[in-house]
Design a protein that fits this description.
Order of helices and strands: HHHHHHHHHHH
Structural class: mainly alpha
Oligomer: single chain
Mean pLDDT: 85
Number of domains: 2
Number of helices: 11
Low-confidence stretches: 1-7, 184-190, 202-207
Largest sheet: none
Number of strands: 0
Distance between the termini: 50 Å
C-alpha cells in the first residue's frame, strides 16, 4: 500500500500543476480541462486535471479525463499510472479499470490487460467487453480461452433472449470447438493469423 501511495504522489507531482484559484472547484477545473482539450491545448488541459485532483483526489472525472488524455497523447506508461492511481483511490471506478485494460493491451502487457478486462466485463455484465476479451484471446492465439469466453457469451445471450448475439456465439463456438479439438496449447501453440482466417471462413459460411 505504501508503494501505491508513493506512486500516486509521484504521478501527481509529474503533472506540474499550477495552483488553482481559491474560487475554483474540482468540477469547474475538469470542465476547463475539457474546453482546453477541445481547442488542442493539451498541456493546459493536463494541468487543469491535476489542479482538480489536488483539490479533490477522489474526483472520478478528473482521473478519467487525465488518463484518456495521456492515452491520446501517446504517453501510455503515464496513462497506466493514472488509471492505477485512480483505482487505488476509487476501487469501484469501472471506467478506470477498462481504461487500464486497454492501455495495458496497447503496451503489450496482454496477460494483465486480459485480467483487467475480464474483471471489468464481469462486474458490469458488459457483453461488448466480453466480446472484446474474446477477440484479445483470439489475437493471442489462446483458442481454449477464446472458446470459454464465447460459451459465456452464448449462455448470456440465450438468457437475455438476444437472438442476434446468440446466433453469432453459436457460430463462433462451433468454429472454435473444431480449432481447439485435440490441441494442447502448451505444446502446440496456435498461429493467431491462421486462426483468424479459419474463423472468418466459418463466419462467412454461417457456421
Amino acid at each position: 500500500m505504501r508503494r501505491a501511495w508513493a506512486a500516486e504522489a509521484l504521478l501527481l507531482a509529474s503533472c506540474v500543476a499550477v495552483p488553482a484559484s481559491a474560487g475554483s472547484s474540482a468540477d469547474e477545473l475538469v470542465l476547463q480541462a475539457h474546453a482546453h482539450e477541445a481547442t488542442h491545448e493539451d498541456d493546459v488541459a493536463v494541468r487543469r486535471y491535476c489542479d482538480a485532483l489536488a483539490i479533490d483526489p477522489v474526483n472520478p472525472q478528473a482521473w478519467l479525463g487525465l488518463g484518456a488524455l495521456r492515452v491520446k497523447l501517446g504517453d501510455l506508461l503515464e496513462a497506466e499510472r493514472v488509471y492505477s492511481a485512480a483505482l487505488e483511490r476509487l476501487p469501484s471506478l469501472r471506467e478506470a479499470l477498462g481504461g487500464r485494460a486497454r492501455t495495458r493491451w496497447a503496451l503489450g502487457e496482454h496477460v494483465a490487460a486480459e485480467a483487467d478486462l475480464e474483471t471489468y466485463a464481469t462486474q458490469g455484465g458488459d457483453l461488448a467487453a466480453l466480446k472484446e476479451l474474446a477477440e484479445w484471446f483470439g489475437a493471442d492465439g489462446r483458442t481454449p480461452a477464446q472458446l470459454a469466453t464465447w460459451r459465456r457469451l452464448l449462455a448470456a445471450a440465450t438468457r437475455l433472449g438476444d437472438v442476434r448475439l446468440e446466433a453469432e456465439a453459436r457460430r463462433m463456438v462451433r468454429a472454435l470447438v473444431i480449432l481447439a479439438d485435440g490441441v494442447d496449447p502448451a505444446s502446440s501453440p496456435i498461429d493467431p493469423d491462421s486462426t483468424r482466417r479459419a474463423l472468418a471462413h466459418v463466419a462467412r459460411r454461417g457456421g
